[in-house]
Design goal:
Helix content is 69%, strand content 1%. By secondary structure, it is mainly α. It is globular.
Length: 422
Amino acid sequence: MNQPTDVSSKLKQATRRAHDALGELPYSSGLQSGDVPVDSVVGHLRALAIIYGAMDGALTQASTGEHLEFLGHCGTPRLPVLMKDLNRFPPADYRDIQPVVRAAINLAGCIRRRSVTVPASLAGFVYVLEGSPLAARSIAEDVDRVLGLGPGEGLEYFHGSEGKTAEHWRKLTCLLDAHLVDADVQRTVIDAACEAFGGLLAIFGALFPYELDELHFTSTAINPESGDHSVPQDRDAIRASLEAGSRCLDQYPYIEMRFGERGVRFTQSDSAWLATLADLDERAALRQVNWLAGVLSSRGMPSRLLQVHLELLYEDLMKLGVRGGELAYENLRSGARELAKSRSSYVDDRQLEQLNADFEGWVGSDWAKKMRNTGQLIVSSATDLKSGTAKSTESFRRWVCDRSRFPRVWIEGVERLYAELL
């Protein structure tokens, strides 16, 4: 049995100066005086969502390694709480401070790299990030004042639960002291903690003050794990993109059923990126559509999903009159037609609808309603394979044939439909 160490004390000493420096930044003093704008507080939350999105995944992966199981007990998933708070600040209503986003993405990249190169060093990031909720409570009232929130209206991330937060911190430091006994590992952990504070200083230093020309709509406001890909810089286009994504999710429950909230977020951020295809020439836009269709299909997202998404996006952009003129988003409709054409050489639209209806009849009304239009996706996965998309059916078919998830009548229906197609 290893003897407990004092690594938590070493971490505190090594990061004390950086910790104090955070409290001396203009953003910190601006919160106290009420001088910071709402955009800064929203940027604070969004930056944390980017970081915790990376951290949650990294800890899950690292804790499967030998002697690192304890990491799975160290971190508390914070992204769900942050996303709940961020629902108050719709992506189309609040732009991001771009230097803040870049700094948060850089820090998230550091976390992901360490999870691969030196997984044990993630304990340093845990030490810093799990201490953040304690610091957050100290500024909760300042944040409420900036946002104009009354008693009981505060953000959950900042207010939390004082007793639970303090108890979790005590347990965390005990875990670190009990498991981080190797001197070399301790050094990497302390180095990681210092790196984490360096990243936070860059983020909070950019939150306030900032220049107005640094405000932009970003993909990370929609999906913290999306990276910094292009999205429209028009509020109406953002709103139309999110509406189209929601309609696609509604038509195909498979996405959320399989990929959960993360799948929902990626559907929405992809939707915003798709809207930017209008800025390309038609040939370049079609190359992007075909590339994305291949990537998604190989990951269990048959191309029918992208085809319908493009159609819905075109409709919603036209409905809002974004950019004006029917030709403004013709690239989206052309991309949808290209995907439909590829599938129609094997199964035309009329056959697609009939096969979907047949499948829903085989599996029964309850499952047909719960997983509506899955027959379309089975057809699409089969035609994707025929058209040359490598391994296009493997991931999707394995999931829809999972006997731990679906009843026998469903799986028999899936296999029957595949038998007719392949």
